[in-house]
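Input.
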Amino acid sequence: MRLAGQRTNIDFLGQRRLAAALSTLLIVVSLGSLATRGLNFGIDFTGGVLLEVGYPQAADLEDIRGRLANGGFDDALVQNFGSSRDVLIRVPPREDVKSGQLGEQILEMLNAGGQQVELRRVEFVGPQVGEELTERGGLAMLFALIMILIYIIIRFQWKFAVGAVAALIHDVIITLGFFSVTGLGFDLSVLAAVLAVIGYSLNDTIVVFDRIRENFRRIRKEGAEAIMNASINQMLGRTIITSLTTLLVLVALLLLGGEAVYGFSVALIVGIVIGTYSSIFVASTVALGLNISQLDLVPPKVEQSGAGDLP
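Output.
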């Protein structure tokens, strides 16, 4: 595929030291923030109370947040759920208040001033459930990376597998670091987005690796760096078009989807940008650093003795 009608000839791997410095900086900042600030876990992981309430007309979310803040619940998450009259309220756990009393207190605050608020659903998420979700979420990401490593070793070669997994770890750390630095809420929808980023980044990397393998078998006179550069340039148009069309959908979801999918959209946008970058600079750079060559993908031909040759 050509980009803007022209074949590109960008020396991506020639900039690998600059890219490595940038990636190292981002990873150090991300790990530092995760170690000191951590993630702003939502109620799915910390436990708490979830309430679904209904209003006779469109609910004023700012007024609801103000009422809850005046009552000491300034950390409550308020968002529309389904329609403008349905509101979902998430409140983190309180040590001095029982979970069963939290729902009653919040409903009293919302009904103050003659409001007619209908309580439709109350759910309690205990801290033990939150810890279990945190553990299983981490295991899900670890299991996905291990299975990806095995798949690429079988399909390609172990040097490509190490490069692909290094790129995926790079993407996950930076995406989590972004949420740690910005303090955005991290809930199950964001975790799902992180797992989706792993799949998206892997797909992009596999496409590039397929072209590299094809060119290794077709081009015999060039070095590994030149062949890998040519392969990345050949797939650049496809990579950019795929990323831009996906980002257009996610930006629309971010702007129009409301608070319920805000974290999900942000995680995917950050992950796709970082994943596109890593499929170009990180995965191929690691494979090149492991001295990938034609011999790894194209076994040398063994000359067989003719029928008349002596043993």
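The longest helix spans residues 188-218.
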